[in-house]
Specification:
It is built from three helices and no strands. The chain is mainly α and 97 residues long. The chain has a domain of 62 residues. The chain starts with 15 loop residues before the first helix and ends in a 12-residue tail after the last helix.
Length: 97
Amino acid sequence: MRKRGRPPIHSRAMTNQERQQRKTQKQQRDWTDAVSALSELGGIIEKIDMLNLSDDVTNRLAEIQNEIRNSTYGFRAIALHKSISAPKETESWTVVP
């Protein structure tokens, strides 16, 4: 038969205050990561803007791709750029005469 009522509190259980602290710490880490990703995105965009057509573009693009792969926030920066630049599904585009 199943016991009813509140389960026993374990010694490792978190209090609400500890949960709130962890939540705020996670939000701060996420904010710092997002700012770092945005900064890295700016660097990537700057390198893409500086591509000179007289140079060997394929080698420069390969360098930029490798930098994105090897960087800490490279793929997150690209995802951030896509989420910012893509129109939202709820947005409607109407032509105004």
